């Protein structure tokens, strides 16, 4: 059964979360990375594990991959829409 997690437990890891977020600033925004780090800490506590830098950074890395993948999909969709929009004007 998952255990309850207090705000104090999560905020105790903010320095580690923020240091980890700085490693990925070239891939995503700091606030998003910070939020993902806090989710990683919360999930670790819920599973009964001690949050580690690896757990936090893996969650951030996964977030960066999702954002990058979504960005490419949005760009492809935009290019396709632009292409078809130019055909409609003919």
Uncertain residue ranges:
none
Radius of gyration: 19 Å
Structural class: mainly alpha
User: How can the largest sheet be summarized?
Assistant: none
Give the overall pLDDT as a whole number. 85
Q: What is the N-to-C succession of helices and strands?
A: HHHH
Q: N-to-C terminal Cα separation, in Å?
A: 63 Å
Spatial shape: elongated
Would you mind describing this structure in some detail?
With about 90 residues, the chain is mainly α. The chain has a domain at about 5-65. About 75% of the residues lie in helices and about 0% in strands. It has four helices and no strands. The protein has helices spanning about 5-10, 15-20, 30-45, 55-90. Helix 2 crosses helix 4 (about 55-90). The longest helix has about 35 residues, at about 55-90. The protein is elongated and about 40 Å long. The N and C termini lie far apart (about 65 Å). The mean pLDDT is about 85.
């Amino acid at each position: 059964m998952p255990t309850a997690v207090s705000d104090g437990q999560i905020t105790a890891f903010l320095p580690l979360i923020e240091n980890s977020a700085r490693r990925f600033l070239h891939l995503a925004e700091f606030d998003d990375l910070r939020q993902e780090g806090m989710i990683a800490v919360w999930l670790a506590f819920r599973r009964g594990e001690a949050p580690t830098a690896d757990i936090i950074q893996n969650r951030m890395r996964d977030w960066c991959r999702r954002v990058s993948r979504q960005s490419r999909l949005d760009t492809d969709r935009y290019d396709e829409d632009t292409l078809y929009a130019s055909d409609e004007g003919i």
